[in-house]
Amino acid sequence: MRKITSILLTLIMIFGFSARAFDTDKVNVLTESVGNYLYQTVKNPVVSSVGGEWTVLGLARSELGIPDEYFENYYQSVTQYVKDRGGILHKRKYTEYSRVIVALTAIGKNPQDVAGYNLLTPLGDFEKTVWQGVNGAIWALIALDCGNYEIPQNPDAKIQATREMYINHILQKQTPDGGWALSGDYADADITGMALQALSKYQGNNKVKSATEKALARLSDMQNESGGFASYETETSESSVQVLVALCELGVSIRDERFVKNTKTVLDSLLTFYDGEKGFLHTHNDTTNQMATEQCFYALVALKRAGENKNSLYNMSNTDWGYLEQIKVKITFELQNIFPFGKLLKGESK
């Protein structure tokens, strides 16, 4: 199978495909090829921004038939990590919680009970979550929405967070030119893409819709003739990743006329960073980069899912830990509060 995939990939890179089949076939073959590479490279994913959650997310959402044992091993690693740290993943960077929540939800595990700790609870502290800046609010919202989780009450929080507070915080941080950035008044493609991913579920809100349209217009202006995007004046694969995922989450075609420059789409740009054998480069002058490969892979997965009309990358209601499971937990929790023996419902002793 891998030999056939390699042959197909070579043919695609040389000749390409025509008409509508072009993107679909290329994305499918590349997704399988890069997915196999990551599966073989990241043999034991751990809690980490490289060699961890992004690989797990991509592989879990790719539907490539990765063995369940792979994800179970990751879960056991997370459980031990959480236990060893007394449930504290980081004292300042709350995106650590968000990233792990997303990965656990992707593999059908419950982030509300990991070694006895609810990893969503820290996100109930508004001030500590946004301490990192707008990216803290962005990823908190993505993490909460990926499994449609309620924000738990955080007894230590000075300000209890709500979804509306995170949404408003993101809207308030929109730059004058219509996008988002970690700092300054000029939009950054990466952060703008991430913000749009977080806001994608709230397009029924007029303020969010208006902010989204401004941001899309800004991204269209920022797009290069290559179809790609730059960060700090350097075109990178990761910048294209975040914009591509944002378009998929919003249901905007990569062939939308706003995002085609010189006949090139954001996907066309992304593929120029492929090393032709294993993974992706960070910049065109780079060698194969692990972080870039992991992010480019989940962008391909997002596009593949969009092309197949499946739930988006961050809409995980189709995982084992979906809405029905969450309802069961809510009912159990309420019963535990009503009856002193409620814990027996979970098989716990007195």
Any overview of this molecule?
- The radius of gyration is 20 Å and the shape is globular.
- The protein folds into three domains: 1-41; 47-173, no CATH class; 200-275 and 285-306, no CATH class.
- It has helices at 2-15, 21-41, 53-62, 68-84, 95-106, 126-129, 134-146, 163-172, 189-199, 206-222, 237-250, 266-271, 290-307, 323-338, and strands at 230-231, 234-235.
- The protein has a two-stranded antiparallel ribbon.
- With 350 residues, it is mainly alpha-helical.
Question: Main β-sheet: number of strands, strand sense, barrel status?
Answer: 2 strands, antiparallel
Number of strands: 2
Helices, by number, come to 14
Residue fraction in strands = under 5%
Low-confidence stretches: 1-22, 322-350
Q: How far is the N terminus from the C terminus?
A: 53 Å
Order of helices and strands: HHHHHHHHHHEEHHHH
User: What's the multimeric state?
Assistant: single chain
User: Which outline best applies?
Assistant: globular
